[in-house]
UniProtKB/TrEMBL annotation:
Protein name as catalogued: Polypeptide N-acetylgalactosaminyltransferase
Cofactors named for this entry: Mn(2+)
Residue span(s) of domain Ricin B lectin: 354-464
Organism taxonomic ancestry: Eukaryota, Metazoa, Chordata, Craniata, Vertebrata
Record's subcellular location: Golgi apparatus membrane
Recorded name of the encoding gene: GALNT13
Organism: Scleropages formosus (Asian bonytongue)
Family: Belongs to the glycosyltransferase 2 family. GalNAc-T subfamily.
One GO CC term on file: Golgi membrane
Annotated metabolic or biological route of this protein: Protein modification; protein glycosylation
Primary site of residence: Golgi
Length: 471
């Protein structure tokens, strides 16, 4: 089992022992099971790209699509082989899919191209009214397709994702995902799940069966109207292998007049892996940084500073030519990133309004506040100032929080150290006053002693590097 695990970074032995057409629980909310959708829905082509995928997971994906989609809504399945090296993915696969009830076409990339260009190739060959992208280790559950297509029929500019359920990488157990999380991202431009905020619950008047407007998508699983996919600029073909394309598309769709939604009545499972089984030609970090630079340069305006300052060295990564993507942004008359932060993602980790972004230095000791690479609930530290950004970058926001990436400095522990906690936007223990007269940083709730010991130690000369006064 351990040997087989290494091949795909999931328990291949377990997967191989499970039927390709296994049954799955119906994990939908009750309100979803009784929903009625229009008879006339657009049909879809399903595009699945793969590089060295395992047989059982790939074919279980295909069978689950066929078995759980109304036949008249599923026009075809396109498998795009991104230059896999496994023999069984060649002729054996071609012979296998020939006998299936739905047309399955296999396209082969001549050379390893990455998931973005592989999907572009697949998408260009589709004939359906809607394109549905899936990873090669998914399983669709009962009723997954109709709500996605119905939402696109209602609004062709809606780009829709199912709830992504978890297929255990260890046991292949199927576990329902939550309808209470949505997609965001941190300063490093990592995609992250965050709780759906109250404002979005209010907008849906508490009806959890209605789609959630999500700031970003995970990227592997979604449906989009085929002509809208073209109109909105498909993908950035300059991106390699993996990464960044999901945020790029998310920003683009929102900024250019579309919407991105999680259709909570649709559930599709996905095997989440803890490590990548395949190589990244050019180096993992290089590739991802390049892709992220491309999206930051085109879509994030000045807010790209947050990404650059927290990722030392990233500004030296070559990102190629993005002029055609900038032209696209012009042609579609897309809104600025600040509009996106204000209207679509007000609870974002990158603050829409802030005073400063940089280091916090004790000028007496030349020590800087440093998150020490620590995690949530751990204390913030001091370290010699290195001026390289990274762990020594903090932002003093208009809400008077001191943030480092998606954590806020917090003094809720009486007599305890200042710790980093999730930002709660409620001021209180996360609100810091900056006193320009004495150049100190004073916590508003200044009656408790940890605050004083904190302030005494901690005289702030200035918030340097990026002074933002015009927010
Ligand atoms: N993939 C590909 N070419 C690549 C890298 C990935 O075709 O160079 C495929 C991969 O086989 C999978 C999909 O793209 O079907 C998404 O990749 P992965 O599942 O590794 O991404 P994750 O789900 O971990 O984000
Ligand atoms: Mn995947």
């Amino acid at each position: 089992m351990k040997e087989l695990f290494k091949i795909n970074q999931f328990n291949l032995m377990a997967s191989d022992m499970i039927a390709l057409n296994r049954s799955l629980p119906d994990v939908r909310l009750d309100g979803c099971k009784t929903k009625v959708y229009p008879d006339e829905l657009p049909n879809t082509s399903v595009v699945i790209v793969f590089h060295n995928e395992a047989w059982s997971t790939l074919l279980r994906t295909v069978h689950s699509v066929i078995n759980r989609s109304p036949r008249h809504l599923l026009l075809e399945i396109l498998l795009v082989d991104d230059a896999s090296e496994r023999d069984f993915l060649k002729e054996k696969l071609e012979n296998y899919v020939r006998i299936l009830d739905v047309p399955v076409r296999i396209l082969r990339m001549e050379q390893r191209s990455g998931l973005i260009r592989a999907r572009l190739r697949g998408a260009a060959a589709t004939r359906g009214q809607v394109i549905t992208f899936l990873d090669a280790h998914c399983e669709c559950t009962a009723g997954w397709l109709e709500p996605l297509l119905a939402r696109i029929k209602e609004d062709r500019k809606a780009v829709v994702c199912p709830i992504i359920d978890v297929i255990s990488d260890d046991t292949f157990e199927y576990m329902a995902g939550s309808d209470m999380t949505y997609g965001g991202f941190n300063w490093k431009l990592n995609f992250r799940w965050y709780p759906v905020p109250q404002r979005e619950m209010d907008r849906r008047k508490g009806d959890r069966t209605l789609p959630v407007r999500t700031p970003t998508m995970a990227g592997g699983l979604f449906s989009i109207d085929r002509t809208y996919f073209e109109e909105i600029g498909t993908y950035d073909p300059g991106m390699d292998i993996w990464g960044g394309e999901n945020l790029e598309m998310s920003f683009r769709v929102w900024q250019c007049g579309g919407s991105l939604e999680i259709v909570t009545c649709s559930h599709v499972g996905h095997v989440f892996r803890k490590a990548t089984p395949y190589s990244f030609p050019g180096g993992t970090g290089q590739v991802i940084n390049k892709n992220n630079r491309r999206l930051a340069e085109v879509w994030m305006d000045d807010f790209k500073d947050f990404f650059y300052i927290i990722s030392p060295g990233v500004v030296k990564v070559e990102y190629g030519d993005v002029s055609s993507r900038k032209t696209l942004r012009e042609a579609l008359q897309c809104k600025p990133f600040s509009w996106y932060l204000e209207n679509i993602y007000p609870d974002s980790q990158i603050p829409r309004r802030y005073f400063s972004l940089g280091e916090i230095r004790n000028v007496e000791t030349n020590q800087c506040l440093d998150n020490m690479g620590r995690k949530e609930n751990e204390k913030v530290g001091f370290f010699n100032c290195h001026g390289m950004g990274g762990n020594q970058v903090f932002s003093y926001t208009a809400d008077k929080e001191i943030r480092t990436d998606d954590l806020c400095l917090d003094v809720s522990r009486l007599n305890g150290p200042i710790v980093m906690l999730k930002c709660h936007h409620m001021k209180g223990n996360q609100m810091f006053e900056y006193d320009t007269e004495v150049c100190t940083l004073v916590l508003e709730l200044s009656m408790s002693c940890p605050v004083f010991s904190f302030c005494n130690k901690f005289f702030v000369q200035s918030f340097i590097k990026y002074e933002k006064t015009d927010y």
